[in-house]
Design goal:
Blueprint: E1 9-12, H1 16-27, E2 32-35, H2 39-49, E3 55-58, H3 61-66, E4 73-76, H4 82-91, E5 100-103, H5 109-121, E6 125-132, H6 134-140, E7 143-148, H7 150-163, E8 166-167, E9 170-171, H8 181-209, H9 215-225, H10 233-242, H11 266-277, H12 282-294, H13 297-304, H14 317-350, H15 356-362, H16 373-383, H17 394-417, H18 422-434, H19 441-452
Parallel strand pairs: 1-2, 1-4, 2-3, 4-5, 5-6
Antiparallel strand pairs: 6-7, 8-9
């Protein structure tokens, strides 16, 4: 590397995501320098980048920091957790006042708040930036969710807007708010992702087991759905997955993949924090739980032989496919509604100042949960900025009314057939609970007062009451 060359952007962590992101930066006219401890990753970037004046790499941290123009803009794409803290400590003796460190990983939002406060004392800017879109998105245009110091974001904004995915000429990136707003939005994004994936898998399973459709037929169904209101990345790739042949054996690859889901924690964080905030996100909750249940493969196989499974009667194919499309739309919409409700409450609680219309806009392209539905969602929040929940939006009243009955049909078929549809069931129960004026919590409150003297309130007068139930 030429000692005199000063690069405009630095990136630490040259794995697949990091290498693709830094090449994206260079392709969009900003010189970039990468750093990695692995010499193989360093050489891979140099070889793929081609022009060392545009993009270069080094295995020396000192050479890396000194090779960046000030104020330095250094992005970390390393695994979340202690590694981020370790890299920050290694950088501190080398960076200067006013430099910017960006965490582009899936860090827990409270860790981001801690790191920002720590670096602020040292006059180093720090913010978290969620990056969604996988390796392909990093290379061709991800959705970026930055949050932190507004002034510091101004330094990197031209680069982020250049590398982000574009939706009708608008970059899918925006400053979201102070502190850990960016990492928090990415966390909830991932929670929504869990929910959408679970819903998609359930519909596939119902079409296969109750409807008797083969992989090729289900592939055609999802491909057709992707041309309509369910147009989305997850529906699109589901169709592609179902058409993939096995390179190692005959048949379809999907039938050879073990049914044990893995997870890295962001869905669990979303669910846990929603409970802390008192916001219901049952479809996200159950999606996390279903990955946990799937891990007990041996137990499931053993139990499968112990109990009979009912044989529900499915409607004709055309009706089943039509109902499943409506049910999946219903479930998708309510999963977004749950996640955005959580974001609204978190914004108030943590002072993020989120604009939900903006959040929905930057998810329209580049990210894993991108979908045609997000255009209507962003417009709904633009028209009603104080919207508490999407179920109140005038935009979605008719679609919800039209799809709730097919959703009931689909859930009923799953129950009658012994086919688990916990995601769709939770979405339907969430809707029914959120839209009813009376829930049986009066009995729960009476029970709590009976055994714990926890008191209750009345419907006919003000005040707090306790009853001696056993007298």
């Amino acid at each position: 590397m030429q000692a005199s060359k000063q690069y405009e952007f630095g990136l630490i962590g040259l794995g697949v995501m990091g290498r693709n992101f830094i090449l994206n930066v260079a392709d969009n006219g900003f010189s970039a320098l990468g750093y990695d401890l692995d010499p193989g990753q360093v050489e891979a970037l140099k070889e793929e980048g081609g022009d060392l004046e545009k993009v270069n790499a080094t295995g020396s941290l000192e050479e890396f920091v000194h090779g960046l123009a000030t104020p330095r803009k250094i992005m970390l794409l390393v695994p979340a957790g202690p590694i981020v803290d370790s890299v920050i400590e290694d950088l501190l003796p080398l960076v200067s006042e006013g430099d910017l460190i960006i965490d582009g990983g899936n860090s827990f939002f409270r860790d981001t708040d801690r790191r920002e406060a720590y670096l602020k004392e040292k006059k180093i800017h720090f913010f978290g930036a969620g990056v969604s879109g996988g390796a392909e998105g990093a290379r061709k245009g991800p959705s970026l969710m930055p949050g932190g110091d507004r002034e510091a974001y101004g330094e990197v904004r031209p680069i982020f807007e250049a590398v982000a995915a574009q939706f009708e000429g608008t970059p899918c990136v925006a400053y979201l708010g102070p502190k850990s707003a960016g990492n928090y939005v990415k966390m909830v994004h991932n929670g929504i992702e869990y929910g959408l994936m679970q819903l998609t898998a359930e519909v596939y399973d119902l079409l296969r087991r109750a409807g008797g459709l083969g992989n090729a037929e289900i592939r055609e169904v999802f491909a057709r759905w992707n041309q309509g209101r369910l147009q989305s990345f997850l529906v699109e790739i589901t169709s592609e997955i179902l058409g993939k042949k096995d390179d190692l054996d005959s048949g379809d690859l999907i039938d050879k993949i073990l049914d044990q889901g893995k997870q890295k924690g962001t869905g669990k964080w979303t669910s846990q924090n929603a409970m802390d905030l008192g916001i219901p996100v049952p479809t996200i909750d159950i999606a996390v739980s279903m990955r946990a249940i799937s891990a007990f493969k041996a137990d499931r196989l053993r139990a499968d032989g112990l109990f009979d499974r009912p044989a529900g009667k499915a409607p004709d194919r055309e009706t089943l496919v039509r109902d499943c499309e409506a049910a999946l739309y219903f479930g998708f919409l309510l999963t977004y509604a749950q996640g955005l409700h959580q974001l609204a409450e978190a914004s108030e609680t943590y002072g993020y100042e989120l604009e939900l219309a903006t959040v929905a806009r930057i998810w329209r392209a580049g990210c894993i949960i991108r979908a045609a539905l997000l255009e209507a969602i962003s417009m709904a929040y633009e028209q009603e900025p104080s919207l508490v929940n999407l179920v109140f939006s005038q935009t979605f009243r008719s679609p919800l009314r039209e799809t709730v009955a097919p959703a009931r049909n689909v859930v009923a078929l799953g129950v009658a057939s012994g086919i688990p549809l916990p995601g769709l069931s939770s979405a339907l129960s969430y809707f029914d609970s959120y839209t009813t004026g009376r829930l049986p919590m009066n009995l729960v409150q009476a029970q709590r007062d009976f055994f714990g003297s926890h008191t209750y309130q009345r419907t006919d007068r003000e005040g707090t009451f306790h009853t001696d139930w056993e007298s």
